[in-house]
Design a protein that fits this description.
single chain, 151 residues, alpha+beta, 4-stranded mixed beta sheet, 30% strand
Length: 151
């Protein structure tokens, strides 16, 4: 693997319009990564990367993240086969957010509860009462309980 180096944060103009990648990580050393399907633009998930996860992603062409709950690296699809091949990475103007355009291997699901996208529900606001969620994906791609034996 190569030794990818990110540039130190520069002045505002260099960060916002220059040609050097200068990621701005939060206090925990993380940058948000919005993941979309590369052809359709459908939002699949949101993950977080630290510098090493971003480097691994650039080096391998497959998406790596930092799991905040497990406090460790996570290669998407490593156990499920739903590996995300990265086609393009975009950053916003102040370089504190990324968009990964990916294709998903295996059965094509991204969500750990079996849906294609983690965003399989939309928020509805009834005239009165509690806000509700309504499914926008009718069917799961797979049932994780059957695949992973969870009950």
């Amino acid at each position: 693997m190569t030794d990818i180096v990110f540039s130190e944060r520069g002045d505002k103009e260099t960060v916002e319009t220059g040609d050097l990648l200068m990621p701005k990580y939060d206090a925990d050393g993380l940058i948000v990564a919005v993941v979309t399907e590369h052809k359709s633009g459908e939002v699949l998930m949101v993950g977080y990367m630290n510098a090493e996860a971003l480097k691994r992603t650039l080096e391998t062409g497959e998406a790596w993240y930092w799991s905040r709950s497990r406090r460790g690296f996570w290669k998407k699809g490593e156990t499920s086969g739903q590996v995300q091949t990265v086609h393009e990475i975009l950053t916003d103007c102040d370089q504190d957010a990324l968009v990964l355009k990916v294709s998903v291997a295996g059965n094509g699901a991204t969500c750990h509860v079996g849906y294609r996208s983690c965003f399989f529900r939309k928020v509805t606001s009834p005239a009165s009462g509690k806000a509700r969620l309504e499914r926008v994906e009718a069917e799961r791609v797979y049932d994780p309980n059957e695949v992973y034996g969870k009950h």
